[in-house]
Design brief:
The chain has helices at about 5-40, 45-55, 55-65. With about 70 residues, the protein is mainly alpha-helical. Helix 2 packs across helix 3. The longest helix has about 40 residues, at about 5-40.
């Protein structure tokens, strides 16, 4: 195996890991949104959720929009 082939293999492996992590991040974002929606449905305000999570209300709005 040439040096170039080894580098290409490492690039391909890094790309596969990045794709995997992106998929996981999307799944977690959906789960997070569903959990927050559950709280909102129970009457918890976006401000209360934001305060508990240590983020701004605008951050909650952005998370819910995704």
């Amino acid at each position: 195996m040439t040096d170039h082939e080894e580098v290409f293999d490492r690039i391909k492996a890094a790309r596969e890991q990045a794709i995997h992590h992106t998929r996981l991040a999307r799944q977690f974002a959906i789960e997070r949104r569903d959990l927050m929606q559950s709280l909102l449905d129970q009457g918890v305000s976006q401000s209360d959720i934001a305060r508990e999570l240590g983020v701004s209300r605008q951050a909650i709005q952005k998370m819910m929009a995704c």
